[in-house]
Write a structure and sequence with these properties.
Strand content: 5-15%
Distance between the termini: 81 Å
Helix content: 40-55%
Structural class: alpha+beta
Number of domains: 2
Order of helices and strands: HHHHHEEEEEEH
Length: 238
């Protein structure tokens, strides 16, 4: 077998494992940054309460983190890359046709300098975008939560106490780690940190979606008619 005839795989396939690992670490770092900024609005330094394992799924707990920060960056990168390729092809076609360099085209020396600075500029723009998008999004999330538009809950503790709000001043679940639960009391405007080992039950106070309400009505009607979904007759009751 002629080894020279065997085609080598593309370079990106050879380094696919490394690229996936680096990409995942970047997503984790973005998720951590969002968490730090988000909890800061509630007076909490999440780094004091979270463990390393809590951040491994940080970018996936809130899919909007990816939509707000990562997706626009990917789209912008694709747009700029496509524009760069189009400009290069246009310049090559003009040179092949014997046309002079246009006033909008950079000189070769300027292009060389820009290419050397491009990685640094891209990195700086990426950091700037992560900061702006995370700061804006987390400010809005905190604003909605403090208005009672977040995940409203009632928390029953192991010692018999209950953390709850009122219909007009709900108790909002800000977030959680493997060891702590973060609540915000809209009635007293304060943050409460509860160890998860002290939590017996969490009861969401939100309204069921319309589809769930319809399924509930159909299920109850079927149960009332004594259908197949009805509770079985206890043994010995006949």
């Amino acid at each position: 077998m002629n080894t020279e005839s065997v085609r080598k795989p593309p370079s990106w396939i050879e380094h696919l494992g490394t690229a996936l690992t680096v990409g995942y670490l970047v997503l984790v770092a973005i998720g951590m940054f969002h968490s730090v900024l988000g909890y800061r609005h509630f007076g909490v330094n999440i780094l004091d309460y979270a463990e390393a394992s809590d951040f491994l799924l940080a970018p996936f707990r809130d899919p909007m983190v990816l939509v707000v920060t990562v997706l626009p960056a990917v789209l912008a990168w694709g747009y700029l890359a496509a524009g760069e390729r189009w400009s290069r092809r246009l310049a090559e076609r003009r040179r092949a046709e014997g046309k002079p360099r246009g006033w909008w085209e950079s000189s070769e020396a300027m292009q060389a300098r820009l290419e050397s600075l491009a990685p640094l500029l891209r990195f700086g723009l990426a950091l700037f975008w992560v900061f702006v998008s995370a700061s804006t999004y987390q400010r809005l999330v905190a604003y909605w939560a403090m208005r009672g538009e977040g995940t409203n809950v009632t928390v029953e503790l192991g010692n018999g106490a209950t953390e709850r709000g009122t219909p007009t001043r709900p108790l909002v679940l800000v977030g959680a780690t493997s060891r702590y639960l973060f609540l915000f009391r809209t009635e007293s405007w304060e943050t409460v940190v509860v160890p998860t080992e002290n939590v017996q039950r969490i009861i969401p106070q939100g309204t069921l979606p319309e589809d769930s309400q319809k399924r509930r009505e159909r299920s109850w009607q079927r149960l009332d008619r004594g259908g197949p979904a009805a509770s079985p007759t206890p043994p010995g009751s006949r």
